Write a sequence for this structure.
């Protein structure tokens, strides 16, 4: 760790034990996670070009067709159809757009805002820090789903509302963690040296503090995408998320709910999709954390 | 110690006060409730009368203070929809939510503790891997999906447990409790495991072993007490989450709790109900926070002696 | 300190400990042999990574598993080989027969338990005491390490004590039994200079009082001069020179020892530059054949790079591993 006054960014490497205690398992690339995420992203991005049946076209004649491997299944609807005869596979693919977009956008917004708050609070400390942390704590304890419900009833359910409702509470988590990191970083000599060399607050924060929090941010962001996807699905399930007719995994599960015995696939496959995507993000986040900054084990 | 508790109490009250303002504004933001209550044939005059009767025509500031004044005394007004005192509604529903949350928490901790500790002690072995799989699945599974599947199979096909309501005694707690607590098991287990791993690596544990303390005592006394510190914070947070986000589970299992009350209140724009539910929730969270901090101070002497 | 002619308290023969890492297997302790008698202090000197701490941990079989393993050798305590004992039997040895003081007093004591609890635990385990006698024994242990107001201190918590005090508490726990062998792993490195001197004096007194055999790990040759009767210099997991302190200081036989001694600046002597040892510390995962120090040795011969030198005696109880000293 070399201190460089004069504005060059100094990267503080995580402690590398010499030698590391045990040969660690899972040093390989997280193939499963990357594969699944890449798969869903590609499906989502190229959905219109895939030649799938229209996710919104209803056909009462085709209601509740089972998946292709069951008796009356056909290849026309490989995963079956729902109660309005809409193709399930197509709806799942289109639903991926919604879920992934909601997850990524929300997390980016929340992390940007939260990181700024955390950096400022950690850098200035004192009154600024105390006030910001009060606000942060108060925010963290507000139930996300309740807020989203209220918004849905007031302004009407929409993608923007979902993102807003979740982000407006999620940022607090980032603020807390980044602030903690900044407090630790401020103790290190290279910050003192930068200030002695005349660096102002803006410079110190952007050039020295922020790059050293990137590791944490990346890990946190990845781990939170899964959480947001589940919250979005829960909201859609309750009817307060993405409104019909846009296909959303949560509302698909809600629609198929009453028919779990007879037409199990209508609720099962959307749920499976959620599970796979969230699992992939969580595993990826774990791997990133183990690689980039093991001290975050407690997250 | 007393100073510590008092300080935290004051902080909680301040937070609640802020929250009451936010709640007041939000509740009003849900729109005009009268449209949902009044019959179709109501005239302008009927609306005016109703407004006056319900106190909705007074200036906002006045409404707020009357709301706070009464709330402190426990009077949350009348539910616009059910025409009953909101306090009554809450008194009916809150215990159900608390009981469910407590059950879920209890079961989760009972499962997470041994798993987390074993996973740390036997790091790298089959037990550890299995526990990690359970944990990651627990955090990746959408609970309402699990709930639906469980309702269908365990309650529907196998008829082992009731599908809805809380009529059937302990049996009715099982499915909703398990569904609610599932992700807590995952989170707590991981946290306990990583906390234990960190503690087991510490110098003071090394010294205890050097002293010749038996390994069992090293793990369950020397290590665990330290490992519990971060776990307690999260236990508190999780419990608060359980109480406040039980909406989904309560909906699926038709559990007559606070979550459903909130849902109904929001759908019918029942201000008093919405305000009361959010405030109650916040008060519960604040109380839990306070207890957690106190528990912290009991376990970790460094916090007790610190001058804040 | 005159050495008794009886059997040494601890006799180590060809101790080997390996650590498996993803970069290869590290021979952290590579054939270490030494003896320490009653009332005698052996210093263990070397750079970071030379194997000093790992040797000490190997003596009490607390190497960090699962990566590290003791793969060979003998550790005889009063004649009995510790390496063949079962873990339960080993737990009976630790603390009672062999005690250890760790380096960092700030993290050696459990922060959530009182001093009293931790000291009482030791006394209770070794002497099966309870109640009042236990309390009194704990207080007397604290008094033995010169902690003022010992009874009051029992109720205190580690964070309320200074570093020096904490290290004394650790010392109190170490002599609670009292043990046959005391291993001190750089106990004063984290202490202030003035406190260091006091602590070293305390250790010496305790040793005399209980006739302890002591192994003192340090990288500070000044402390070696003060505290130790004999010293073993370690490099890359091997002892390269061992002998009485006076001899080693006056006539170091191994080039590494010579370099270490030369790099200490001396008051009064004129130096234009400070002497440093050339080269890099060895890559323990990829040790070449031959003498480990050869790459950095100013007097290396061809033979040194090919064949690892065995022990050669160069004086009374003074051995070294160097071809230069070969007859």
């Amino acid at each position: 760790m070399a201190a460089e006054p004069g504005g060059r960014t100094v990267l503080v490497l995580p402690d590398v034990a010499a030698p590391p205690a045990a040969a660690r398992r899972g040093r390989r690339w997280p193939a499963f996670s990357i594969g699944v995420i890449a798969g869903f992203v590609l499906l989502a991005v190229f959905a219109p070009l895939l030649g799938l049946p229209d996710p919104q076209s209803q056909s009462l004649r085709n209601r509740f067709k089972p998946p292709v491997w069951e008796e009356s299944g056909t290849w026309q609807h490989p995963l079956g159809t729902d109660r309005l005869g809409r193709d399930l596979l197509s709806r799942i693919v289109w639903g991926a757009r919604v879920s992934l977009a909601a997850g990524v956008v929300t997390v980016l917004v929340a992390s940007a805002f939260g990181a700024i708050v955390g950096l400022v609070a950690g850098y200035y400390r004192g009154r600024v820090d105390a006030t910001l942390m009060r606000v942060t704590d108060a925010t963290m304890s507000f139930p996300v789903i309740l807020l989203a419900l209220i918004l849905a009833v007031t302004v009407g359910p929409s993608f923007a509302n979902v993102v807003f409702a979740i982000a407006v509470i999620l940022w607090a988590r980032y603020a807390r963690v980044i602030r903690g990191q900044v407090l630790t970083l401020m103790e290190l000599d290279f910050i003192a040296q930068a200030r002695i060399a005349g660096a102002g607050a803006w410079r110190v924060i952007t050039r020295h503090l922020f790059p050293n929090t990137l590791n944490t941010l990346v890990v946190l962001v990845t781990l939170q995408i899964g959480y947001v996807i589940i919250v979005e699905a829960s909201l859609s399930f309750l009817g307060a998320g993405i409104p019909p007719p846009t296909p959303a995994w949560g509302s698909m599960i809600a629609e198929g709910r009453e028919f779990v015995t007879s037409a199990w696939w209508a609720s099962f496959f959307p749920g499976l999709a959620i599970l796979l995507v969230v699992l992939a993000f969580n595993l990826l986040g774990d791997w990133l954390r183990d690689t980039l900054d093991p001290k975050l084990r407690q997250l | 110690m007393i100073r510590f508790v008092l300080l935290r109490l004051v902080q909680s009250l301040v937070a609640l006060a802020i929250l009451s303002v936010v709640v007041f504004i939000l509740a009003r933001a849900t729109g005009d409730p009268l449209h949902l209550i009044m019959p179709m044939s109501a005239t302008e005059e009927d609306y005016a009368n109703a407004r006056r009767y319900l106190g909705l025509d007074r200036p906002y500031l006045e409404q707020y203070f009357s709301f706070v004044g009464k709330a402190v005394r426990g009077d949350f007004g009348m539910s616009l929809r059910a025409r009953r005192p909101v306090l009554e509604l809450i008194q009916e529903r809150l215990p159900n939510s608390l009981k469910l949350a407590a059950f879920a928490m209890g079961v989760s901790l009972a499962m997470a503790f041994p798993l987390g500790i074993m996973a740390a002690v036997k790091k790298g072995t089959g037990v550890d891997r299995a526990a990690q799989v359970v944990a990651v699945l627990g955090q990746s599974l959408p609970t309402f999906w699990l709930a639906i599947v469980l309702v269908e199979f365990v309650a529907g096909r196998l008829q082992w447990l009731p599908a809805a309501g809380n009529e059937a005694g302990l049996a009715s707690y099982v499915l909703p409790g398990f569904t609610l607590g599932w992700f807590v098991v995952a989170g707590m287990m991981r946290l306990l495991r990583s906390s234990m791993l960190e503690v087991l690596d510490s110098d003071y544990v090394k010294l205890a072993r050097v002293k010749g303390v038996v390994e069992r005592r090293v793990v369950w006394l020397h290590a665990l007490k330290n490992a519990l510190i971060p776990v307690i914070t999260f236990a508190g947070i999780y419990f608060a989450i359980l109480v406040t986000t039980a909406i989904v589970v309560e909906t699926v299992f038709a559990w007559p709790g606070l979550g459903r009350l909130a849902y109904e209140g929001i759908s019918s724009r029942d201000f008093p109900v919405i305000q009361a539910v959010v405030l109650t929730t916040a008060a519960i969270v604040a109380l839990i926070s306070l207890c957690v901090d106190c528990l912290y101070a009991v376990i970790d002497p460094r916090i007790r002696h610190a001058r804040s | 300190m005159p050495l008794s002619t009886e059997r040494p308290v601890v006799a180590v023969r060809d101790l080997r400990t390996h650590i498996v890492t993803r970069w290869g297997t590290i021979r952290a302790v590579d054939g270490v042999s030494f003896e320490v008698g009653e009332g005698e202090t052996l210093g263990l000197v070397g750079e970071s990574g030379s194997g000093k701490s790992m040797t000490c941990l190997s003596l009490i079989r607390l190497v960090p598993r699962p990566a590290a393993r003791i793969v060979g050798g003998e550790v005889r305590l009063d004649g009995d080989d510790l390496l063949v004992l079962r873990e339960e039997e080993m737990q009976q040895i630790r603390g009672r027969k062999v005690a250890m003081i760790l380096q960092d007093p700030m993290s050696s004591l459990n922060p959530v338990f009182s001093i009293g609890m931790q000291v009482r635990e030791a006394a209770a385990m070794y002497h099966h005491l309870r109640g009042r006698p236990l309390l009194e024994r704990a207080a007397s242990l604290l008094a033995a390490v010169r902690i003022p107001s010992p009874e009051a201190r029992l109720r205190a918590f580690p964070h309320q004590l200074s570093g020096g005090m904490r290290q004394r508490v650790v010392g109190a726990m170490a002599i609670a039994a009292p043990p046959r062998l005391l291993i001190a792993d750089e106990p004063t490195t984290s202490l202030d200079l003035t406190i260091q001197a006091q602590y070293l004096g305390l250790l010496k007194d305790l040793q005399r009082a209980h006739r302890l055999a002591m192994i003192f790990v340090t990288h500070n040759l000044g402390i070696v001069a003060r505290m130790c009767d004999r010293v073993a210099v370690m490099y890359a997991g091997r002892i390269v020179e061992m002998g009485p302190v006076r001899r080693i200081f006056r006539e170091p036989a191994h080039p590494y020892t010579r370099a270490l001694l030369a790099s200490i600046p001396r008051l009064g002597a004129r130096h234009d530059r400070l002497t440093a040892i050339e080269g890099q510390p060895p890559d323990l995962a990829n040790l070449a054949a031959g003498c480990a120090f050869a790459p950095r040795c100013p007097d290396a011969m061809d033979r040194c790079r090919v064949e690892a030198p065995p022990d050669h005696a160069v004086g009374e109880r003074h051995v070294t591993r160097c071809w230069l000293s070969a007859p």
Observations:
- The longest helix of chain C spans residues 193-210.
- The CA atoms of residues 30 and 186 of chain C lie 21 Å apart.
- The first strand of chain C starts at residue 10 and ends at 21.
